[in-house]
Specification:
Elements: H1 2-9, E1 16-22, H2 33-51, H3 54-70, E2 79-84, E3 89-94, E4 101-105, H4 111-119, E5 122-128, E6 132-139, E7 142-146, E8 153-154, H5 163-168, H6 172-191, E9 198-202, H7 204-213, E10 220-225, H8 235-267, E11 270-271, H9 274-282, E12 286-292, E13 299-302, E14 305-308, H10 323-333, E15 337-341, E16 352-356
Parallel strand pairs: 5-9, 9-10, 12-15
Antiparallel strand pairs: 1-2, 1-4, 2-3, 5-6, 6-7, 6-8, 11-16, 12-16, 13-14
Helix pairs in contact: 2-3, 6-7
Length: about 350
């Protein structure tokens, strides 16, 4: 996802079309996705012909229609985003819910890619016992694939399961830690080309031993205190077990970010007026932008001034469909980050707030 964001956030060209819609993973719900996409494409076409010359629009529509025809809706996730202009025609699937919309601007709408980086939790699950270990890639509550190669990792030399031999083995704990050390190195090797946080499923004793020998403790996001050593366990059952624990970790992470905002309010490194926020971001003073999920704001942008526009007028030429998206992109370009929050946590700030660097 980070690769896509880097690719699209800095593209600037006339008539960048972004089509964003919710989709469905399963049959028969996904049968309606092509029609809903077609309706959004029609909306984009009408807006393009209203604002640009036909000869300019034709190649864009050719690329857009060819891209739409290439999509296999049987592979849909929660949402779909299409990026098309005269040079580019690509799409991506996301595992987050979005607001259906068409955005036509001088840049692509990338806020949902940013959201996905925060909400679309990609991670590995390490199923750990004293006899073996399995490694599974997951996305939110769905298993993606079980990692093969060195995994499943078997303890065939460093630990004997015979109770009598275990009783006489004074170095048993050291042997276990050596086994866990090898697993840790195997995990690092397996994920080096696609690094993600790792969630461990193990009983507390094994987790403690494992973390004692782990070389890079920061790559492990936490653990679920459960014995899941059954080799026949289906990977989707394993992810079902661990997902609530991952959600709890994310909830605590958001609470910590809100505490950051509270401290910023107290120190004066905080802005909530939309024009003050915009000017601070343009000056490179933005650190963390807080946005309520689902908050969109059409506007006219004139230099360092934002003029808010009613949502009913968002399709008019010259109107930026979503100035929040522009803020996110500019803040990212200066090394800032974005936090998306649900509920009414940002209500007193009109759903938008900025922590400044100084």
């Amino acid at each position: 996802m980070n690769t896509l964001l880097k690719k699209f956030k800095n593209i600037q060209a006339e008539a960048c079309v972004t089509i964003i819609l919710n989709t469905h993973r399963t049959h028969p719900d996904n049968e309606g996705d092509p029609l809903r996409l077609k309706n959004l494409v029609k909306n984009a076409e009408e807006r393009l012909y209203n604002d640009y010359e036909k000869r300019f629009v034709w190649p864009i529509m050719e690329k857009l229609n060819a891209l739409v025809d290439s999509i296999d809706h049987r592979e849909n996730l929660e949402s779909l985003i299409l990026f098309v202009n005269q040079e580019i025609a690509e799409y991506t699937r996301l595992a987050i819910n979005v607001t259906d919309r068409v955005v036509i601007d001088d840049t692509f709408a990338t806020r949902d890619l940013v959201r996905a980086e925060h909400e679309q939790e990609a991670y590995y699950v390490l199923v750990l016992s004293r006899n073996d270990a399995r490694l599974i890639e997951a996305m939110n509550d769905k298993a993606v694939v079980e990692i093969k190669g060195n995994f499943p990792y078997k303890n065939e030399t460093l630990y004997n399961t015979d109770k009598q031999e275990r009783h006489t083995a004074g170095s048993d704990e050291k042997l276990i830690e050596e086994f866990f050390n090898r697993i840790d190195k195997g995990v690092q090797s397996a994920i080096k080309d696609h690094p993600l946080p790792v969630m461990i499923i193990a009983d507390e004793r094994n987790y403690t031993h494992y973390m004692n020998v782990a070389d890079r403790k920061e790559m492990y996001m936490g653990y679920l205190n459960k014995n899941r050593g059954d080799e026949s366990a289906k990977i989707h059952h394993i992810v079902d077990d661990v997902w609530p624990a991952v959600q709890e970790i994310n909830r605590k992470r958001n609470e910590e970010r809100m505490e950051e905002l509270g401290r910023a309010v107290g120190s004066g490194k905080f802005l909530s007026d939309i024009n003050d926020i915009w000017r601070a971001i343009l000056e490179g003073r933005g650190q963390t932008l807080f946005v309520k999920k689902g908050h969109f704001q059409p506007a006219l942008i004139s230099g360092n001034e934002i003029i808010l526009v009613d949502k009913l007028d968002r399709d008019q030429k010259g109107v930026c469909d979503d100035v929040i998206d522009e803020m996110i992109e500019h803040n990212l370009s200066f090394g800032g980050d974005t936090v998306f929050l649900e509920g009414d946590q940002l209500e007193k700030f009109q759903n938008l707030a900025l922590i400044t660097r100084y």
